[in-house]
Amino acid sequence: MNRGNKVYRSIGLVALILCVFAVGFSTGRVFEGKGFGFGGSNNTVITGDKSKKIDSLNFDLFWDIWDTLKDNYVDETKIDAEKMFYGSIKGLVNSLDDPATIFLDPEETASFNSSNEGKLFEGIGAELGYSNGQIIVISPIDGSPAQKAGLRPGDIILKVDGKDIAPSESIFDVVQKIRGKAGTVVKLTILHAGDSKTIDFEITRGQITVPSIEVKESSNPSVKILKVSRFTDATVSLWNENWDKAVDSIVKSNAKTVILDLRGNPGGYFDSAVYAAGDFLKKGEVVSKQEDRAGKVKEFKVTRKGKLLNIPVIVLVNSGSASASEILSGALQLNDRAKVVGEKTYGKGTAQSVLSLSNGSSLHITTLKWLLPDGSWLNRDNPIIPDFIIELTEEDFKDGTDPQLEKAMVEVLKSLK
C-alpha cells in the first residue's frame, strides 16, 4: 500500500460559499482552517481529534483504476494527472450529497475569494444555487448583465450554449461554462418558476464590482434604504467596519425610519449577521443558535448597544435571500423588532467551515445547523415567511416597478403617524 500512502500525504499537503465570480454560490462561513487535521495512514478518517478505522476499504482498487485509465484509455491526450487527481477529491466530497460541501481547485478558490472581497470580476453577475437537484438562479446582481437580460430568482438553468446540464455536473462545472471575458456572449436556456415553456437568453458578459453595503435615498426624505448585497468582504472585520460606516451615515442623516433591503443577498459570514443585528436589537436578545453534529446548541446574543434601536425598520426579502441574510431577517422578525415584506426566503440553514489548503485549493464543509431564535431549524421547508407576502409579476419586471419596496414604504411610514 505504498502508493496509497502517497495519495494520503498528497491530500494532506494540498489540504464550504451559493460562489460568485461571473456567477455565484450562497454560503455561510463560520471559520477558516481551524479544528481539522490531516495525517495518519491511508485507511484512517480524521474527525476532529478522533480517528475511525475503515478496515474494509482497499485503496489498491483506486490505483488499479488510475493505472488502467492512464495506460489504456483510447485518447491519450485526455489523460491529465492533475485533472484526475482533483476529480477524485471532488468525487469523494460529492459522495456526501450535500451541495454546500464542496472542494474547489486553486483556480475556483481564487475566483471564489475575489468575488467575496468585492473585487472586479467578469461574467453575467448572478448567484447560483441548488433546488431539488437542479441549478437555479438565486438572484441576479443589481445592475448586472443577468438582471438586465431578465433573469429572476428561482429560474432553472437547463442548458448553457445549447448543451444540457448533466446530472453529474456540479455548480462549479456550470460556473466554468457560464463565466468568461467581458464582451463575449453566453446563451442560457431558462425555465422561469411556474412556467411550462423554456426561454433562451443571450447575455453579453460584463465587468462587475459589487459593493457589500449601500445607503440609498428613498422617495421620502425621512426613510433611508440600507441595501446589503452580501455578508462578505475580505474579512469579517472589514465587513463590520463597512456596516458601521453605513449605520453612522444613517444616524447623521437624522433619518426617521429604515428599510433594510436583503433581497438577492446570498449570505456570507454568520458573525457579521449577528453583528448587524446588534444595531437593531437590545443587548441580551437572541439573534440565532447553532447546533453541531452532537446536538449541542449554542446561543448567540446581542452583546453591544446598538445605534438604531429606536428607529422603525421594515425588512425586504425574496427567494434570493439566503443564509446570513435569513439569520438577520429572522432575528428581527421573531424578536418583534421588524415586519418582513416580500417573498419567502431560500431556506439555507447550514454553515460551512472553509479550509484553505496549501496549494491554493479549499474545502468547504458543512459543520453546523443554523437555528432561528425560537429554536427551529432554518431550512428549505422552514424559510423566513414574510408578514406581508408580495410577489413580483411578469408585468412588474417589464415595467420596472417594485411593489415590494412600495409596500415596505407604506408600512414603514405608518410608524411615523
Please report which band the strand proportion falls in: under 5%, 5-15%, 15-25%, 25-35%, 35-45% or over 45%: 25-35%
Large-scale geometry: globular
Counting helices, strands and paired strands, the structural category is alpha/beta
CATH topology of the largest domain: 2-enoyl-CoA Hydratase, Chain A, domain 1
Spatial extent as radius of gyration: 23 Å
Q: Low-confidence stretches at least 5 residues in length (pLDDT < 50)?
A: 1-52
Helix content: 25-40%
Question: What is the CA-CA span between the terminal residues?
Answer: 77 Å
Number of domains: 3
Walk me through this protein's architecture.
The structure is a single chain. This protein is α/β, with parallel strands linked by helices. The chain folds into three domains: 2-110, no CATH class; 121-208, PDZ domain (Pdz3 Domain), CATH 2.30.42.10; 213-349 and 370-414, 2-enoyl-CoA Hydratase, Chain A, domain 1, CATH 3.90.226.10. The protein has helices at 2-14, 60-72, 81-94, 106-116, 145-149, 171-178, 236-252, 270-277, 324-334, 394-399, 403-414; strands at 23-25, 28-32, 44-47, 50-53, 102-104, 121-123, 126-131, 134-140, 156-160, 163-164, 185-191, 199-204, 206-208, 213-217, 223-228, 257-261, 268-269, 286-291, 297-301, 313-317, 339-342, 350-356, 362-371, 388-389. The strands form six sheets. Strands 2, 5, 17, 18, 19, 22 and 23 form a seven-stranded mixed beta sheet that branches. The chain has a six-stranded mixed beta sheet with strand order 14-15-16-20-21-24, sandwiched between helices. Strands 10-9-11-12 form a four-stranded antiparallel beta sheet. A hairpin with a 5-residue loop joins strand 14 and strand 15. The protein is globular and about 80 Å long. Residues 1-52 have low confidence and may be disordered.
